[in-house]
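Input structure tokens:
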């Protein structure tokens, strides 16, 4: 069963699907989730706190999907290719993930400002959100670190430095496809090219 925090985050995301962040009202988010406005403020502290939580949740969701892709069946190349495919899908389908991975924030999105000092929220999840969202380079670095940890034991064996560089290459190639799709007459699926590049780097 979803927690109050999860329900409130879902309500805020639903509101953001039709309204710019500046027009999203806390009272409406609380009402849509079926909770009082006080519960909303208890969880997030302020609208800015809710914005930080939304972005943190998007980052966590992307990382969780990347970890699932990395853990999919197959060898090292298949894991990296699946992660690149997940990245393309996530960037195309989630505006917050796209902003997190590119650093390009649309005006309609919440863009939380990094705080000078951590907040003293009594809610652990909010303290984590208030600690700041990762930059694009940090987010790619977190996926790369997970790739090295999860794939280093797979066959064929691979030097960790080569594996890290290959993962970053695959992710950046995936991002290029996600942001600038191929022409209509061309193959829109980036997976074959990513797989080719990954296999060439791992075996070259």
């Amino acid at each position: 069963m979803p927690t109050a925090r999860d329900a409130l985050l879902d309500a805020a995301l639903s509101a953001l699907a039709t309204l710019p962040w500046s027009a999203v009202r806390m009272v409406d988010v609380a009402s849509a989730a079926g909770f009082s406005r006080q519960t909303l403020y208890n969880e997030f502290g302020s609208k800015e706190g809710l914005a930080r939580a939304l972005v943190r949740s998007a980052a966590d969701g992307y990382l969780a999907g990347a970890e699932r892709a990395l853990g999919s069946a197959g060898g090292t190349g298949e894991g990296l290719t699946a992660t690149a495919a997940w990245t393309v899908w996530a960037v195309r389908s989630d505006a917050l993930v796209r902003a997190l991975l590119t650093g390009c924030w649309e005006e309609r999105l919440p863009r939380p400002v990094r705080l000078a000092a951590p907040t003293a929220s009594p809610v652990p999840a909010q303290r984590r959100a208030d600690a700041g969202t990762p930059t694009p380079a940090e987010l790619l670095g977190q996926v790369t670190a997970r790739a090295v940890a999860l794939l280093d034991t797979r066959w064929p064996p691979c030097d960790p430095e080569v594996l890290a560089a290959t993962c970053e290459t695959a992710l950046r190639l995936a991002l290029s496809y996600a942001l600038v799709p191929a022409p209509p007459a061309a193959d829109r699926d980036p997976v074959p090219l990513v797989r080719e590049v990954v296999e060439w780097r791992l075996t070259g």
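DSSP finds ten helices and no strands in the chain. The longest helix spans residues 47-70.
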